[in-house]
Amino acid sequence: MIFKSNSSEAEFGKDATDRLANFLNKNKSNSVSTQFLSEDVIDRVSTRGIGDRRRQLQQQLQACREATLGLFDGIDYSALSRQAHPDFSPIGWHLGHIAYTEAFWILEKCAGQPPQFPQYHRLFAADGLPKAERATLPTLPELHEYLDAIRTKVLTYLKTAPVDQQERLWRWLLQHESQHNETITLVLQLQQTKVSGIGDRPPPPSSSLRPHPSALIPPSSSPLATSSKAATL
Question: Which residues face 2 on adjacent strands?
């Protein structure tokens, strides 16, 4: 199953539905497979030993991260920091936001550690800056350093984390990174090839930005549910 995020054709208005759906279908190989996120899989792995579940999570975190970083091969700073459309953040912002979110939920909320890289909090928090002000970014090597530092601490915590109590949170974080990978793929395509002229269009009026039913994620009972999803695009 390929995760379908709410960063969909609704961002450009109803008339773009078919073109963006076709684009995403053709580029599934660039998306992260998230078959391990389905409810039945979570139920199955819950019967495994804690050690097995920790190892599985570590492997999946690594596979997801490799897919994320692979999207940035050959990317220069101009592409990293360019806002391809007013409704989307630069791709470099998504990379920093992934690290910020992982640090916030795992290191701060679960492990009780102090805030990590506080200089980045306003920049990479979903409610920190408007999209138009997210273009002044660290360089790609600096973002790699940020990601690596957070991930090292996260994996250290995973060795002793109460996975039986936190598993849905860990899997939500995998889903979160996969969703941003999909958005990055779309923004790169907008930068490079202009999908059937969509990239040339002005942003639609706010009244037209209603999510397509197939793009909606069912409401969650988890405290992670948020009403500001558009801010993370």
Answer: 33
- Quickly count: other Cβ atoms within 10 Å of residue 190's Cβ: 19
Residue 155 · residue 61 · CB < 8 Å = yes
Spell out the SS3 assignment of 138-168. CCHHHHHHHHHHHHHHHHHHHCCCCHHHHHH
In a domain, 113, yes or no: yes
Which residue in 21, 36, 88, 99 sits closest to 233, CA to CA?
88
Say if 115 falls within a structural domain. Answer: yes
Structural domain including 163 reads 50-197
Question: Whole-prediction pTM value?
Answer: 0.69
Q: Which amino acid is at 44?
A: R
Asked, for residue 205, whether it belongs to a domain, the answer is no
Q: Which residues contact 52 (CB under 8 A, 6 or more apart)?
A: 45
pLDDT digits (tens, 9 = 90+) for 151-183: 999 999 999 999 999 999 999 999 999 999 999
* Total Cβ atoms within 10 A of residue 196: 13
Q: How far is CA 63 from the centre of its chain?
A: 14
